[in-house]
């Protein structure tokens, strides 16, 4: 959003598996599923692996560990609205920032975001982390994440 507004100067941008493809009519359904899925996991129950694998990436068990037990339903809904209804606008083409998009090999939705962003930002750089799902690199390998991010930002 900040890049689209163009009110500030940004030299480098790091996007970590950003979700920016509108879900349209499916947004309320996915919001419902996400809210209830989080509540289900927070109550100590496990969601079938086939479902979590398809959403967060194969073998990504860190998702349940990252969810805060005290997050309110309204907060989850607000986040879903911001993500599922984000609108990529033509103003994004005007940015002069160098943009790096990171995603895990096992992240289906961010791959769609990369395709969309590439139409607006043909020079976007993409780094795919082998065997990783959503949030998995940061959660399971924080030292490597910090080192790679620091290296990118200091280039």
What ranges have pLDDT less than 50 throughout 5 or more consecutive residues? none
Number of strands: 3
Q: How many H/I helical runs?
A: 8
CA-atom Rg in angstroms: 16 Å
Strand content: 5-15%
Average pLDDT score: 88
Query: What are the secondary-structure elements, in order, as H or E?
Result: HEHHHHEHEHH
Global geometry:
globular
Q: Give the N-terminus to C-terminus distance in angstroms.
A: 24 Å
**Helical percent range?**
40-55%
Biggest sheet strand order reads: 1-2-3
Largest sheet: 3 strands, parallel
Secondary structure elements and their pairing?
Layout: H1 2-5, E1 12-16, H2 27-42, H3 49-56, H4 62-66, H5 73-84, E2 98-104, H6 108-120, E3 125-129, H7 136-140, H8 142-154
Parallel strand pairs: 1-2, 2-3
């Amino acid at each position: 959003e900040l890049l689209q507004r163009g009110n500030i100067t940004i030299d480098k941008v790091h996007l970590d598996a950003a979700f920016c493809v509108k879900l349209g009519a499916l947004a309320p359904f996915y919001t419902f599923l996400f809210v209830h899925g989080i509540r289900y996991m927070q109550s100590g129950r496990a969601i079938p692996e086939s479902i979590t694998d398809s959403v967060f990436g194969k073998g990504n068990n860190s998702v349940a560990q990252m969810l805060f037990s005290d997050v309110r339903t309204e907060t989850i809904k607000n986040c879903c609205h911001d993500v599922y209804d984000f609108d990529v606008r033509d103003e994004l083409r005007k940015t002069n920032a160098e943009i790096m998009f990171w995603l895990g090999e096992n992240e289906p939705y961010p791959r769609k975001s990369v395709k969309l962003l590439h139409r607006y930002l043909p020079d976007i750089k993409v780094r795919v982390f082998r065997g990783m799902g959503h949030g998995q690199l940061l959660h399971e390998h924080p030292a490597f994440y910090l080192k790679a991010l620091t290296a990118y930002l200091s280039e």
